[in-house]
Amino acid sequence: QVQLAESGGGLIQDGGSLRLSCVASGPAALVKDWAWYRQAPGKERELVAEILSGGLIEYSDSVKGRFTITIARDHPGATLYLQMNDLGPDDTAVYFCNGRRWADDKMLWGQGTQVTVSS
User: Fold this and answer.
1) Nearest Cα to Cα of residue 79 among 69, 89, 87
2) What is the SS3 assignment for 119?
3) Phi first, then psi: what are they for 118, rounded to 5°?
4) β 18-25/3-7 pair status
5) For 3-57, what is each residue's pLDDT tens digit?
6) How far apart are the C-alpha atoms of 72 and 10, rounded to whole Å?
């Protein structure tokens, strides 16, 4: 059983930086892919960045060059990070940590952390 818990959100000015963290408690080896999603008010949840099981890292076009996803493996758990630079009002959203299980492709979600960028 893996549980995800995000932190690090908050209110930041336009052009600022934040680092989000997601602590995965439990056997993180059960998870093959890791990702950050976000959901802005009135919009669908969208993929921001992901680390796939083969090591491939991908970003959405809207954050490429500004955001960096990394993972620290501290057996048996792990911590997923999202470094966000040059933030703008369009980045305002609830950010969710996500993991996809090897066994059944089930998606695991954290509770989300709010990021608000003021102009």
Assistant:
1) 69
2) coil
3) -95, 140
4) antiparallel
5) 999 999 999 999 999 999 999 999 999 999 999 999 999 999 999 999 999 999 9
6) 22
The conformation of residue 51, written as its DSSP 8-state character, comes to E
Phi/psi region, residue 27 (left: phi>0; alpha: psi -120 to 50; beta: rest), is beta
- Nearest residue to 80 via CA among 102, 57, 60, 103: 57
Cross-strand bridge partners of residue 73: 78
For residues 15 and 92, the answer to whether their CB atoms sit within 8 Å is no
How far apart are alpha carbons 48 and 36 in whole angstroms?
6
Task: List, as one string, the DSSP characters of 11-33.
Answer: EEETT--EEEEEEEES-GGGEEE
Omega prior to 76 cis, within 30 of 0: yes
How would you label 102-115 residue by residue, b for 16+ Cβ within 10 Å and e otherwise?
A: eeeeeebebebbeb
